[in-house]
Inverse folding.
């Protein structure tokens, strides 16, 4: 750590990790709902819908806090100056976490916007917008005052600005459900396949420069190419969500073709991460941080690239749309691309924040490998369940619950895998909270 | 490749894709007017959408394929189970799904709210959305439906039984709903005449039963379905 104001990042990380734990606990409860019959009186008070709203909103909240913390850590080093106002960074953190907590409690009592992933009620949206504005102002002012611009910080700021702007499209009430879903995807798709990818690419590039010592010019050059490809394929690629909503049928062509190209930038990112690692000029100090960087690149490719591609073509999507196949893709993509990216910046920054040069990575290793293995297997079990659903419900035309009964075994396996994932997560979180220097080796 | 060229690739990619996307967005707005029957998007339909959101239905059910995957898709729910089916399920999910392994919360919707919800579902179901989902498609018959069509000639009564939604409440061989009693071997317990009365107006036979009168059935349909049930011995 070179700058005092980077310390604020640590708090963002800690809260993000706690919310991650909570997210997985609620996720386990969702899996219980699939595997067992929950009695009516519990369902009446705490339905699957409420739990799902909590699970997904926690995901968004902890990941955004991680990204923001990561940005507060990176920007001082990129600009070579302290953060414009650490106080504002605090206010922003408190505002966002408070909003999150109020929203989650509100869900339990039925206070909701009622649209999946965007359940946070409209009055609270306002606080979120204010929080985002404070963040952008703070980061932007830091850059303006430092008068130093790098491609990495530009991408970070651009990605966050894009993210905040898109959120606005999710706030209004749309009378027409078709238009509603049309703009709902501006938030959801353009976040995860646009703005978040920008942030990810920037953070990954930053960590790679620091870890490998590969020349900035080279890393930033590839960063530009990746961004260009991400946005070129990702923006029109939004069309793969418009196949069956009542939008014009040309979306089958535009969505199909552009989204078929979407794995390309991810592939490029994976290849150039591997390349930079191979051409490194610095010694490997903390092998776990490297492992996470490569794990992130690989699972990002499998979860988002391969699993996404598999059901993005309209001919296949007709049968898999809105089935457990989507769940399979969603879980591995979020974990590979964004959870691991967050863990990467945590594992990179936390030792520095604590002044540890070489950290003891035994628990962290167990955590990383347990979580990655469990989540990869979960993607497979959800995937099998999804294929069964597509065939039994959509091809054979048997009832919804009949199809679900054939998927039961795989839900049970998923629950077990979920518990294993949770154990891995506890290792990781405990490790990050109580990180120790490694004992000197001979 | 230089960094400058890379930067131009970034700009060109972003701007071309954004421009195309915005242009398609404009055109989509124009075409949705027709595809989604915006002329039929009445205040009641909008009120129904608000009910749908108020009770967070969408985090268990999917609609147009989006939402939770925990419960059936609602895009063509009216075509699948009819207004009566929706009414029955939303009004008393605890009873409808008493025997089901998954439950639906009873959120105490008023009849007025359910009426609005039905208006919303009816409008959604008429959107021209590429005939999705496949299981509710009217043109692409599923294998099960093809079998039913093939069996119509063999047993017209079975076809009526299926087509009139009897199986939403009654089960045969453990397939079907649980709101009403299973009908396996019904002819051992009831005479053909009783069965016919039960079909047309169940209140004649049992005053407390939830089954509504089915005066909408034609004489031939009643005859066929009675014959079918009267043979379940």
């Amino acid at each position: 750590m070179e700058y005092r104001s980077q310390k604020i990042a640590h708090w963002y990380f800690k809260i993000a990790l706690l919310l991650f734990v909570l997210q997985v606990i609620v996720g386990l409860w969702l899996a219980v709902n699939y595997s067992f019959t929950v009695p009516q009186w519990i369902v009446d008070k705490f339905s699957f819908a409420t739990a799902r709203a909590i699970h997904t909103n926690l995901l968004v909240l902890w990941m955004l806090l991680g990204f923001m913390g990561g940005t507060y850590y990176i920007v001082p080093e990129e600009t070579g100056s302290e953060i414009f106002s650490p106080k504002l960074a605090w206010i922003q953190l408190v505002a966002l976490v408070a909003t999150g907590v109020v929203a989650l409690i509100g869900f339990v009592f039925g206070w909701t916007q009622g649209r999946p992933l965007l359940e946070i009620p409209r009055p609270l949206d306002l606080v979120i917008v204010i929080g985002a504005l404070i963040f952008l102002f703070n980061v932007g002012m830091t850059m303006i005052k430092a008068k130093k611009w790098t491609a990495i910080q530009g991408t970070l700021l651009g990605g966050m600005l894009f993210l905040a702007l898109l959120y606005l499209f999710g706030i209004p009430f749309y009378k027409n459900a078709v238009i509603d879903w049309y703009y709902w995807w501006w938030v959801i798709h353009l976040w995860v396949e646009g703005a978040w990818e920008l942030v990810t690419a920037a953070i990954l590039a930053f960590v790679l420069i620091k870890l490998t010592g590969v020349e900035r010019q080279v890393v930033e050059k590839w960063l530009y190419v990746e961004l260009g490809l991400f946005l070129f394929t990702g923006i029109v690629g939004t069309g793969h969500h418009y196949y069956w909503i009542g939008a014009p049928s040309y979306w089958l062509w535009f969505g199909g073709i552009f989204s078929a190209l979407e794995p390309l930038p991810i592939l490029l990112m994976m290849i150039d991460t591997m390349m930079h690692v191979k051409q490194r000029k610095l010694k490997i100090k903390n092998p776990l941080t490297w492992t996470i960087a490569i794990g992130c690149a690989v699972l990002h490719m499998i979860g988002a690239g391969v699993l996404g591609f598999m059901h993005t073509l309209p001919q296949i999507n007709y049968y898999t749309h809105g089935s457990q196949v989507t769940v399979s893709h969603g879980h591995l993509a979020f974990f590979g691309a964004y959870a691991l990216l967050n863990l990467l910046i945590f594992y990179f920054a936390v030792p520095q924040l604590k002044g540890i040069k070489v950290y003891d990575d035994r628990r962290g290793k167990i955590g990383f490998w347990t979580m990655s293995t469990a989540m990869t297997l979960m993607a497979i079990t959800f995937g099998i369940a999804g294929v069964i659903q597509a065939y039994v419900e959509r091809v054979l035309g048997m009832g919804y619950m009949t199809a679900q009964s054939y998927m039961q075994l795989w839900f049970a396996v998923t629950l077990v895998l979920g518990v294993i994932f949770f154990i891995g997560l506890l290792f990781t979180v405990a490790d990050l909270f109580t990180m120790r220097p490694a004992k000197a080796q001979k | 490749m230089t960094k400058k060229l890379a930067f131009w690739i970034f700009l060109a990619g972003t701007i071309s894709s954004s421009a195309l996307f915005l242009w398609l967005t404009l055109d989509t707005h124009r075409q949705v007017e027709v595809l989604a029957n915006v002329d039929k998007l009445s205040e009641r339909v909008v009120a129904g959408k608000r009910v749908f959101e108020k009770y967070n239905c969408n985090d268990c059910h999917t609609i147009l394929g989006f939402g939770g995957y925990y419960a059936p898709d609602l895009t063509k729910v009216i075509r699948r189970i009819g207004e009566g089916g929706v009414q029955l399920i939303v009004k008393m999910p605890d009873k409808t799904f008493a025997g089901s392994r998954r439950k639906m919360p009873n959120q105490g919707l008023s009849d007025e709210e359910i009426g609005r919800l039905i208006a919303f579902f009816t409008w959604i179901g008429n959107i021209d959305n590429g005939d999705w989902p496949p299981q509710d498609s009217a043109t692409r018959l599923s294998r099960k439906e093809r079998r039913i069509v093939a069996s119509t000639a063999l047993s017209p009564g079975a076809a009526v039984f299926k087509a009139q939604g009897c199986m939403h409440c009654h089960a045969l061989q453990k397939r079907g709903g649980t709101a009403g009693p299973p009908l396996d071997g019904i002819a051992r317990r009831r005479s053909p005449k009783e069965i016919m009365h039960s079909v047309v107006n169940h209140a004649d036979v049992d005053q407390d039963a939830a089954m509504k009168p089915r005066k909408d059935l034609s004489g031939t349909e009643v005859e066929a379905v009675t014959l079918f049930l009267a043979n379940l011995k």
